[in-house]
Write the structure tokens for this entry.
Amino acid sequence: MMITASMAGHTADNAQQTPADTSRPVTQKPASEQAADTANPLPIYAPDFNPSPQAVEEPVVEPPKIASVYGSQNLKEYRIPFDDQYPSGPFERLDKNVFLFISKCGEVYFTRLNGELTLIKPGAPLTKFIPGNESSPDESSSKKVVYCKDLSGVKDSLLVGKSLYVAYTTWDDNQNGVRLAVTEYEVDLINSDVVFQREIYLSRPAIKEPILGHQVGGKLVLGENDNTLYLSIGDFSKPERVQDKTTSVGKVIRINLQQLNAEVHAVGFRSPSGGLYFDRESNELWLAEHGPRGGDEINLIKRGKNYGWPIVSYGTIYERDGMGGYYGNKFNSHEGYEKPAMTFLPSIGVGPVAKYPSTGRNDYWDNDLFVAGMANTTLLRIKKEGSALVYAEPVLQGYRIREIQIDQSGTFYLKTDHNQLLISD
């Protein structure tokens, strides 16, 4: 407490015990009490002291930051100008200030960044034209392609030039079941539109309901050249189909975009819905996979290898009806199958994967992987040495990150499940 000159005078007067009216008797305290008063003085208030109120300082809000012990980057947070459902869809950068977002249910939004994200054009659904049949009055009609029940929907997109590849769940009317589809669209920047070009791939067989839509996979990445596309496919919550060679369930598929032929590249996956990344410098294909109860994985995918699901897992099973007894009781083990490069216990809800390029901005981060933990709302820097993943460092917390892109200058673009886009300085 500050003491003004007025208060100091009152303090001195009281200390000397000098009354203004000498006719009034003065009662002296015992020496012991006077000593106690001196040792523990009480605050003295002047009745005429009325200090002016002080201004309350607003707390300083620090911007979000990717913060490692080996450097940091500030982030700016932008609100995406539409509401998406969970699990939210992907985005693409069309140029420095124009972004294309695809919602979970397949609506396409063109946006511009100018201080804030604004819509260029309201969302329009992904469609294709189908020819009329014998009983149709039209020669052709437009059909929505995305099956968007529960946790099904759009799973990923990939922009290559003007071609936009989209992976999504679709309904097969003939087989009465769900498939994972990949379709190519052309991006029309002038009219802010996407135009159907061709169907690239359909998973097999059509899976009967009920399914778990968040376990269908659907991550896309270009491979060793621009004509090779990799696609991850999950088990649809039908683990007994994964090791079946007559299905594409629980597989990584390699697709030739020129000839549109496909082959199984690797097998044994539960829910490869986190991220898929191909490193052309090292010729490595990395996949982030949701394990069961525990056992989230980052895998280095090699051609012809079996990654064990549902026979083995470092995790254990969820207590769901009908989901028990299919491991072969090999919990906490990957013996006999390709082992993950990194495992997370407990599960972090492992999300997208991206590599930090050699930019000259931060040599300590060069070639490391950045991986999102969606369940624990944490971004991790994974130290990479050769093909080994050494440790995971938390560098950003509080965001459920659904998509990560890092450009060649080292700028981060992070999309969350809460309609946020974070861009680093």
About this structure: Residues 5-16 form the longest helix (12 residues). The two ends are 43 Å apart (CA to CA).
